[in-house]
Amino acid sequence: MALRFKSISEARRHLGDISFKEDGALRRTPVGNDLSANVAQIDNKPKNRTLSPPHQLLWDSVVQRYGDIEPVLELQDAVPGRRFRLDIAFPAHRLAIEVDGWQYHGKFKKGFIADRKKQNLLVENHWRVLRFTAGEIFNDIETVMQTINSAMNSKV
User: Fold this and answer.
1) Which CATH architecture has domain 50-156?
2) Where are the domains of the chain?
3) Cβ pair 44, 93 in contact under 8 A
4) Tens-digit pLDDT profile for the chain (156 aa)?
5) Looking at residue 106, what is its pLDDT?
6) Of 86, 101, 89, which is closest to residue 151 (Cα–Cα)?
7) CA of 88: how far to CAs of 6, 7, 10, 111, in Å?
8) What secondary structure, in 3-state letters, does the chain show?
9) CA distance 39 to 31
10) The model's pTM
11) 69: which residues sit within 8 A by CB, 6+ positions away?
12) What is the rounded CA–CA span in Å between residue 29 and residue 75?
């Protein structure tokens, strides 16, 4: 059954006041993952930074379904020497998941161009990238999760 939300307020009510300070720290740390030790350094969510409602909903859904595969929130250094973060990543599968919204990913030409460069760098460095809009996440999270599942199960 797909979760659907009519507004950001409705999604926030559904999500509640979720904090990753206590229980989320373990979910963001890819313990025992050789690739993550070599390729990426984990920087926990910066203090006073909250996830957008669609990002939060997707993260919670990913952790619920794939928590044992060690998803990582806001992975840094997926591409050595670059300072960008991946919204959600599975380093062992080299799968990046980006949450796109107009606020950060299209409102200004500079941000739009930076996102395309980021995606191209990731692909050049053997990452697969899935991008989802806030609307896709709010309106049909189950289809989003099926797409992630297909990517996790595919061999490239």
Assistant:
1) 3-Layer(aba) Sandwich (3.40)
2) 50-156
3) no
4) 445 544 444 544 555 544 333 333 333 334 333 444 433 344 444 445 688 899 999 999 999 999 888 899 999 989 998 989 999 999 999 999 999 876 655 567 787 888 899 999 999 999 999 999 999 999 999 999 999 999 999 876
5) 54
6) 89
7) 24, 23, 23, 19
8) CCCCCCCHHHHHHHHCCCCCCCCHHHHCCCCCCHHHHHHCEECCCCCCCCCCHHHHHHHHHHHHHHHHHCCEEEEECCCCCCCCEEEEEEHHHCEEEEEECCCCCCCCHHHHHHHHHHHHHHHHCCCEEEEEEHHHHHHCHHHHHHHHHHHHHCCC
9) 14
10) 0.67
11) 90, 92, 93, 152
12) 10
Residue type, 64: Q
Which structure tokens are listed for 66? 């794939």
